[in-house]
Amino acid sequence: MTFKPALVIVDVQEDFCPPHGSLAVQEGRDIVPALNELLSLPFAVKIATKDFHPPDHISFASNHPPPDNKPFASMYTITNPLNPEETQQTRLWPDHCVQGTKGAELVPELHVSKVHHIVEKGQDKRVEMYSAFADPFTNPNVSRSKLAQILHDEGITDVYVAGLAADYCVKFTALDARKEGFRTWVVGEATRPVDPGSMPEVHQEYQKAKISVIDKDEAVRMV
Ligand code: VGL
Ligand code: ZN
User: What residues does the Isochorismatase-like domain cover (predicted)?
Assistant: First the structure.
């Protein structure tokens, strides 16, 4: 059986990390040593993604009128700009990962010199884009990154996903990797969630999608 693995490190950016990130995930920075160990393995392709929003992005609570614009607490209905019949309920966030700001930078501790491609996502202000592959609309899709193209062009068979946040961008990236036909592995100890309480449900979604959660040493043995 052919085995050509890729590593996808999701959104390990200043705004998702303590102490200064606007959307800091608890212990977000603590996963960097594990990520650097993964980066030292012979993955055929190593990719880092960046959440990369314009200042007027639809997911920022600050871009909506009160009272339903509370970061973390408010939900908002996004309509597919290409099809008014398709809608998505989504969560509003503090401003984060704005293009050109310090918060959008990958954390300096990450060994970025070992990364082959940096994939930016979330640039279209009209849609949320947790997955590093595409926005959640399907009828039609609004915004796609170059991630699927890179992985298919390289003949990748297996995608290993890690990074931030476990319950948002890591989850949706892993689910889309499966949909793209790759065997998909999430390196659990190299992720951290926004809401720890949501993780049992995330693991159920993985099970249903035939995605395996492994620890770093298992990835070391496989790759
Ligand atoms: C993310 C919330 C908003 C993530 C991105 O990278 O998980 N979460 N934008
Ligand atoms: Zn975002």
Answer: 6-196
